[in-house]
Design a protein that fits this description.
The complex is a heterodimer of chains A (142) and B (259). With 142 residues, chain A is of the alpha+beta class. Chain A is built from 2 helices and 8 strands. Chain A has a domain of 91 residues. Chain A has a 7-stranded antiparallel sheet with strand order 1-4-3-2-5-6-7. In chain A, strand 5 and strand 6 form a beta hairpin. The longest helix of chain A is centred in the first third of the chain and has 24 residues. Chain B is α+β, with helices and mostly antiparallel strands. Chain B has a single domain, classed as endopeptidase fold (from Nostoc punctiforme). Chain B is built from 10 helices and 8 strands. In chain B, helix 6 packs across helix 7. The termini of chain B are far apart. The chains are: A alpha+beta (142), B alpha+beta (259). Strand 8 of chain A pairs antiparallel with strand 4 of chain B, so a sheet runs across the interface.
Amino acid sequence: MKPLRQLALHALIAASLLAAAAPAVHAHPPNASDASALSLLPIAISVSAPAMVLSAGAVLSVVAVEASADGAVWVLVRASDGARASLRLSGQLAGAMSVAAGTTVMVAAISTGWVLSAAGRAIAFIPNEIGKALLYNERVTL
Amino acid sequence: MNARAVLALALLAAAQGAQAGRSCERKLPDSRSVERAMTLAEHTAQRLDASGAQVVLVARVGQDLRDHGQRYSHFGIAYRDAPGAPWRIAHKLNQCGTAQAAVYRQGLGEFFLDDLYDYEAGLVVPTPQVQARLLPALRDNRRLAQLHTPAYSMVAYPWAQAYQQSNQWAIETLAAAQEPSISTRPQAQAWLREHGYVPDALHLSAFQRLGARMTAANVAFDDHPNSKRFTDRIETVTVDSVFCWMSRSGLGGAVAVVR
């Protein structure tokens, strides 16, 4: 066998073995420091809503989504009485994939604010004063 | 098939394998994990307030590392400018499984709003003297960036400079803040050795090393000395080793757990 062909065969065998082994090995990565994706969750910057719209257990429906360069504005209406809320959100996904007009949104109240969710996925967080003090994001290096 | 075609195929297969590890899922979290993360952030802030400290090491449990004898996966250095001011945390994050990382200053909410394995924080309060020396460095972006190496390997060797993982950046930054003459990573590492820091050794077989290297962009072993690498001992800066050292050396207190 010519040397190049031999090398190529060895490489092919090695690659096949690795491809076969990869899932098992990947299940136990030696990760001693998080390989962290930054949180993609949209955060509300401002809310214009009657206070009771954001009560625990409220069911809202998305009426409109307007994307902007750094986030989006969502208009929500409460199913029970038609009360409206407008949210200005920051975050990469605020205008992209998280909601569309017609999406049903659940409200959960927690001590730091309100979690909006659709089909079990959190789609936005609206911080209260306690929550605001816990949120800040600044990239220090390139 | 000629030899060149076989070689090209082999390389392509290997490249696809490598790509598979570079995931950056743009997926929203489930609502329960957001509730738990924000609640943990609030409880941590309350504990930090009650500590009376201005600078505290804060760790999270990003994944289950019990097989490696580790509890926490990642830590940053939290501080506040004055009593009543919000806590901020300086830490280094790897971007979506790439070979690059950057330093961030974030709120406790962002720190815990990640895909955590367990909703527990570990806190270590440094001595007042260590805190006083760290505080000006934490406020100063130039000093936070000074010892940062963008090239990232999650198992970077503690005594080399080719790569730098998150916990390594934090401990080297802590070292540099303690001694004004330190301006380089070798100097910071020398200080850590002099002050008794000992990294933990993870036991990874050749097979695990090869698999990890081929499937993830953010794992490298070429900075480790051969003598250790080939005996399956991969030394790196773990949170648990840092916390033990802080307490052992008298630089800080015992670990406090927040849930």
